[in-house]
Write a structure and sequence with these properties.
heterodimer; A: 194 residues; mainly alpha; 72% helix; globular; disordered C terminus; B: 960 residues; alpha+beta; six-stranded antiparallel β-sheet
Chain lengths: 194, 960
């Protein structure tokens, strides 16, 4: 009765985009729950090695949660923004707990050569990106948002541009710069707390 | 580094990137003149840019999918293995995963248990297991699980068995100990199963609550005969044997050890007497609620099994009788020679005790005795008092008086004063008062600790709902909260210092508190909702997100209650309620849309136990002050009224009768008064003529009326709804509102979403209970023909039969899979996929076209599609959803996306895409019942939903 009915999801998202942080607090746990559930569900169905499509996942969560009948596109963009944050939280939490379990919590340096290879042990990279991203966000929130939407939310350059209401060229430029900052922070930073 | 510096570096870096390689050096010389540090930073970034390559270009989830996977097992749900179509996972344990599957040959549900590969590598042992499992099953005993097949899929061995619709004894025990009568019934059936298997020379070796299922009708099934032998290696090292047996259930090692006989614990050769011991352990646990041999580690448990005598049951926690205690002790003799030698001997004693107990029960009900006694457990010499409850004391005394049996070693002692405990509500209340004699719409009342006052919600005159209090004997109600933010579900603290309630502020829930006399509210729990008190007022149970939480009265020490089953329903409200001692939480769990059942979970977390099996509409439950019963609203017998069910499980009994809808029960602390909310919502089957605007109400009900449609001739309407007496049934009514007739009648059946055959001689519909089928009922002779098995509305959505009755089109909606529209041949059962997924598919009357809804990404982009059935070349007509052909095939009616809050805009368009226009607004329409149909004369049938006034009622309950 007091959980938000679907039509309120769009309102909450609008409120949040208008600067109401409370609205986000309300939306986050629901999106978290749903994405987590869906991701698990997919992982259980798909064969090992199969690629999970982040945007498909988010789309489905969105279809299930939001008042899809009456929701405008803007709300959908807000939803993706929230979903990217949530995906970040899910993945980083999981990565941290896996690494703690695997390595007994010790410090871990990663080799960036690994990044081209799809392999287990990517959890360390996810944590490293999250740490470096937190630092990047502290002085350039827009770059931070772009990385969050692209890397954790799975959005394309064009989609990211739509969500942030900037041109794709800007996203492309900022993305390239952000990548360089993150890559440098991770490769030079060396020790990464797992 | 400082933010400003970083931004400076970034600016130069980006400017450099924007330039060609040739220009870069010159640009850097200029931009970094006099600042070599800046240049170093920029150059470092430039090399990162070059080296980075594909770094983070793939989304995190795609490169590290294992991060969201619990384990790497490939789940089998949805797969077909031989004749078995696997539906859902039922459970997982050390002995493998268990799935519910459909046997397509025999059309029955089966359970498939996959054995872990570890145990199936030794072919010889596997064969022996197969022999033994088959031999036990072949006994054909009602309490032994029937095995259909032992099979193999890839490298995995599986057992196909009968599907038991119920819970394991372990799940049952999580809700607390059993009453003596129930325990005896269960034990009797386990013993019978063992007697039959022992006779055939089969020892179970692993009798434990996890291996015993209790069906919903009370029938007990013993599982896994022969399995223990499969997992015990043929080793001569006794210790290795013990350890292997313990390892069979990772994570539940303790559970297994606790039921081991001393000879098993020692790793010795076992015989049938090991099963007798294990049953003894279960007997103890059934009536005491805890195992006799326990300890913090497996070693401690094994030591206890080998050396310690089980402690006599705590008299305040058990109603165990001396005779029952004697039986348990005899089954739990350390030396097997001193134990019951055969299971038949044990069974004999159990049956004897059962008869006595039943006899005493009858005696008591005909002649309430005031006898009570104090007993000494003379056998153990323990001077502990065994306070048997009254009914069983009667057994002893009456038995002595009548001289049937003697209780050697027990003496009757002096009278015991029975403690005063609050009564449970009787099913016949003595007096009924209307509290809402003043204006407004009142609901969700909560008693003050002395039961003289109530707090409730009033949502009068369109104002936002707020908390009010009223003295029940006199005086006007007083508003104690105010503001624009709506308040809900006030709960008066047993300490009388505050009333907590849910307040929704700027889209966020919070639990707030206000003094009962009024004053300033303050927030107690951020993000919480639906609070409820423990009886001592020290703790709150509440909801946040999809979870149940507990906290101290001041909001501190918040803990999530683990073990609550997850829900798919967006409105996840479970309305948790503490048992009076705060140890348990009762809640309503939605499973099929808004329908669901009541469950109990330990407030410290644990596996939740299902208490009702109705799949019915429900709401907030309440406990009786003695903790014996849960009071709950349910549509289980038709209208939404209040019921009670024993907290330990059992058959629900009605507390109220009537048309309902009765919700939000609460009982005063002295157990003498029940307050609840009576709501007056109406479903109106409505016929609207768009030409004149004339609206006619054909049928009115206080409970659901859903999915009406016209016969092709337009003279009759079929719909479904909740029937008086329970179940969901089909109804037919004449188009003028006369001749309402309930078409299906089976008790507790659920028959939904009917549609007419073209000639009006039959109706197609889904049956969700007791079968899961898509079927047809003849209106001439009532004969039922099954068209598809395993179909339910939510998975095989919107099945529509063509006018010739030869094909069914439906939309397959499997969670996590894209929707797929299928066409099924009625005679052959063969299926083909339609070219594109459509929802709400509807045949034209000539059977040559279908109209459907295409959903691409968002519902607001949904389009009405028109497709010739030959060639399947679909054409988008317009934005909208839920198309319905007019009977002459000249128009397609549909809903347009609109901003109407509690209604739908009905539009129509010609099938060639021209002449679109609005027909009328349908409102107020039920949020989940958005169905309509069009008659040959263009009349629209639909269901109006009117939310009515809420009233508070009070019942005086007789002392029991």
């Amino acid at each position: 009765m007091t959980n938000p009915p679907p039509e309120e999801m769009s309102q909450l998202l609008r409120d949040w985009s208008n600067g109401d942080q409370e609205a986000l607090n309300k939306v986050m746990p629901i999106v978290y729950q749903e994405l987590h559930r869906l991701a698990h569900h997919y992982m259980r169905r798909e064969r090992p090695g199969h690629t999970l499509q982040t945007t498909a996942l988010v789309n489905e969560a969105y279809m299930r949660l939001a008042d899809y009948k009456k929701m405008r596109w803007q709300s959908r963009a807000h939803f993706f923004a929230v979903a990217a944050q949530v995906m970040r939280r899910i993945l980083v939490e999981q990565a941290r707990s896996k690494n703690v379990a695997k390595r007994g919590g010790g410090a871990q340096k990663i080799s960036l050569d690994e990044t081209a290879v799809i392999s287990p042990g990517r959890s360390t990279e996810v944590i490293a990106v999250d740490d470096a991203l937190t630092e990047l966000e502290s002085w350039d929130p827009r770059k931070g948002k772009i990385v969050e939407l692209r890397f954790f939310g799975g959005l394309s350059i064009e989609e990211t541009a739509e969500v942030l209401k900037v041109s794709p060229t800007t996203v492309q430029r900022e993305w390239r710069s952000a990548k360089a900052w993150l890559y440098r922070a991770i490769s030079e930073g060396g020790g990464i707390e797992a | 580094m400082k933010p400003e510096r970083n931004r400076q570096i970034d600016l130069v870096f980006q400017e450099t990137l924007a330039r060609g390689a040739a220009e870069r050096a010159a640009f850097l010389d200029e931009a970094c003149a006099g600042d070599p540090a800046l240049r170093r930073e920029v150059e470092a970034l430039l090399s990162s840019d070059e080296e980075g390559g594909s770094f983070i270009e793939s989304p995190a989830l795609e490169i590290a999918p294992e991060l969201v996977a619990d384990d790497q097992t490939t789940a089998l749900a949805g797969q077909t293995i031989g004749p078995y179509r696997i539906e859902t996972e039922l459970g997982k344990g050390g002995m493998g995963e268990v799935y519910l599957a459909q046997d397509s040959r025999l059309r029955r549900k089966v359970a498939l248990k996959f054995l872990p590969a570890f145990f199936t590598t030794d072919e010889r042992r596997l064969r022996r297991f197969e022999q033994e499992a088959h031999a036990a099953s072949a006994l054909n005993h009602p309490n032994i699980l029937t095995i259909y097949e032992l099979g193999r899929f890839n490298d995995k061995h599986f057992i196909a068995t009968e599907f038991v619709d119920g819970e394991t004894l372990r799940q049952r025990l999580l809700g607390g100990r059993m009453r003596i009568e129930e325990a005896l019934k269960v034990a009797d059936q386990i013993a019978s199963a063992l007697a039959a298997s022992h006779e055939a020379g089969i020892i179970h070796r692993d009798i434990k609550p996890e291996n015993i299922m209790v069906r919903r009708d009370g029938i007990v099934k013993v599982l896994d005969f022969g399995l223990a032998k499969l997992v015990t290696p043929q080793s001569d090292d006794p210790e290795a044997k013990t350890l292997t047996l313990l390892k069979t259930e990772p994570g539940t090692v303790m559970g297994t050890a606790q039921y081991m006989s001393p000879e098993q614990a020692r790793g010795l050769h076992v015989d049938s007497r090991t099963d007798i011991w294990s049953l003894g352990v279960i007997l103890y646990e059934l009536v005491c609620g805890k195992p006799p041999f326990a300890g913090p580690t497996t070693s401690d448990v094994l030591v206890a099994i080998l050396d310690r005598e089980p402690s006599p049951p705590n008299p305040t926690e058990s109603e165990i009788t001396p005779e029952f205690w004697r039986i348990i002790k005899k089954a739990l003799r350390k030396h097997r020679e001193e134990r019951y030698q055969t299971i038949q001997d044990l069974l004999f004693d159990l049956r004897h005790l059962e008869n006595e107990t039943n006899f005493a029960g009858k005696l008591q009900s005909s002649k309430p005795a005031e006898l009570s006694s104090r007993l000494i457990d003379a056998e153990s010499g323990d001077q502990r008092l065994l306070k048997a409850p009254r009914r069983l004391q009667v057994v002893l005394i009456s038995a002595l008086l009548i001289g049937l049996i003697t209780f050697a070693g027990y003496k009757l002692w002096t009278k015991r004063v029975s403690p005063v405990s609050p009564p449970s509500p009787s099913t016949r209340p003595s007096k009924h008062h209307l509290i809402s004699t003043f204006s407004g719409s009142h609901r969700a009342a909560s008693f003050s600790p002395d039961g003289q006052m109530i707090a409730f919600i009033d949502a009068a005159h369109g104002a936002s709902p707020q908390v009010w209090v009223k003295d029940l004997s006199e005086g006007e109600p007083v508003q104690i909260t105010s503001g624009e933010d709506p308040a809900d579900r006030p709960r008066w603290s047993p300490r009388n210092d505050q009333i907590v309630y849910t307040r929704r502020s700027q889209g966020t829930d919070g639990i707030w508190a206000v003094p009962p006399a009024g004053g300033t509210s303050h927030k107690v729990i951020e993000g919480g909702r639906n609070p409820n008190w423990s009886a001592d007022g020290a703790q709150l149970v509440f909801e946040r997100g999809y979870d149940i939480w507990t906290a101290k009265a001041d909001g501190g020490d918040q803990r999530k209650v683990e073990g609550v089953p997850p829900t798919d329903h967006l409105s996840a409200d479970r309305m948790p309620a503490f048992s009076p001692d705060g140890a348990l939480v009762a809640f309503f769990q939605k499973s099929k849309g808004p329908h669901g059942d009541y469950w109990i979970v330990s407030s410290a977390g644990g596996q939740a136990r299902r208490l009702t099996f109705d799949d019915s509409f429900g709401g907030a439950p309440a406990w009786t002050p003695d903790g014996q019963f849960i009071i709950f609203p349910s549509q289980r017998a038709g209208s939404l009224t209040l019921w009670k069910v024993p907290a330990v499980g059992g058959e629900p009994e009605p507390i109220l009768v009537g048309t309902g809808e009765d919700i939000d029960p609460e009982i005063s602390r002295d157990g003498r008064r029940l307050i609840y909310t009576n709501t007056r919502n109406n479903f109106l089957l409505t016929l609207t003529d768009p030409a004149t605007g004339r609206q006619q109400e054909l049928h009115q009900s206080r409970s659901d009326v859903v999915d009406p449609s016209f016969s092709h001739q337009g003279d009759k309407i079929v719909f479904f709804g909740v029937a008086e007496g329970g179940g969901i049934h089909l109804y037919v009514v004449n188009a003028d509102g006369s001749g309402l007739n309930q078409l299906t009648r089976g008790k507790n059946e659920q028959n939904v979403h009917p549609q007419w055959s073209a000639d009006g001689s039959a109706i197609y519909y889904y049956q969700h209970r007791p079968t899961t089928t898509f079927r047809k009922i003849s209106l001439q002779d009532g004969r039922i023909t099954e068209l598809a098995h395993g179909w339910e509305w939510s998975t095989h959505n919107q099945a529509r039969v063509n006018p010739e009755g030869t094909r069914i089109i439906y939309t397959r909606l499997d969670k996590g899979k894209p929707a797929a529209t299928m066409i099924r041949d009625v005679t052959t059962g063969g299926e083909t996929a339609f070219t594109q997924p459509l929802r709400f598919v509807h045949w034209s009357r000539d059977g040559k076209f279908i109209a459907g809804t295409k959903i691409r990404g968002e519902w607001s982009d949904a389009e009405i599609m028109m497709c010739p059935i030959v060639g399947e070349l679909c054409r988008a007509l317009t934005r909208g959803y839920h198309p319905v052909w007019s009977p002459d095939d000249t128009l397609i009616y549909f809903f347009k996306i609109s901003s109407l809050r509690d209604g739908e805009e009905l539009w129509a368009i010609s099938p060639d895409g021209t002449g679109e226009g609005k027909i009328l607004d349908l409102l107020p329409i039920h949020p989940i019942g958005q169905f309509f149909d069009v008659s040959p004369t263009g009349q629209i049938v639909w269901v109006q939903y009117r939310v009515g006034k809420h009233e508070l009622w009070l019942l005086d309950l007789p002392a029991s």
